[in-house]
Design goal:
Blueprint lengths: L10 H8 L15 H11 L11 E6 L12 E7 L5 H18 L3 E5 L14 E9 L17 H4 E2 L5 H5 L10 E6 L2 E7 L7 H20 L6 E2 L10 E7 L1
Parallel strand pairs: 5-6
Antiparallel strand pairs: 1-2, 2-4, 3-4, 6-7, 7-9, 8-9
Helix pairs in contact: 1-3, 3-6
Length: 245
Amino acid sequence: MRLRAHCAGEAESLKEIIRKRKSVRKYEQAPLDGAVLEKITAQLANLKPLDPSIKYEIEIVTKTKGMFNIKAPHYLVFRSEEKEGACENIGFIGQQMDLFLSENELGTCWLGVSKPDEKKSASGLSCLICMSFGLPDEPVYRSYQQFKRKELGAISQGSDPRLEAARLAPSGMNAQNWYFIADQGSIHCYRKKVNPLLGFWLNDLARIDLGIAICHIAEESEDFKFAVQADAPKKNGYVYFGTAR
């Protein structure tokens, strides 16, 4: 099995993957061979963070645990220092791996409540989320018509071709707790305010999901830039995070 690595000239390929990828929940249990795992490990060094100032680590393990855990031969464990923007940064980074693995016909699934045995790394970084991966034991792709997503008008306003890629992004429980306002080549990005009675976990998951959706915007941008704008419009019931260009 040969793995293809992302490069600058593969934007069309990734656009296609975004429109057919799916979360895979059934895997062949045989581990991937060493050469494939080496290339996956090498790809981890090519990921681009949303916020380069935030320290993070990604580890490949063979076991995670937790509610709704999926049995797979391998898992990615995403760890980060705990600071503002960390969850969005991990979502942005992790979705690059999701697309890379999907492009190479490997199954993936974000695991919102699964954890490894060691919740913190030797350097003290905390596990924010995990992702299963391996050879799929079910179709790794779906048709565009099989996506179950909210209508674009329910999660955005304004016009920008990249909004469709954000709409198709995966999210915890398919909640799509995000909103986007397109304005003259910019996309202002928001996450829905989560009821504090539902716990910090759902709040963190909404932040990770927003980072995932922003990754899809970035993959379809010619020259992606992201920054906080002091004059960004407000959206009732949502928290502004930053603006993509």
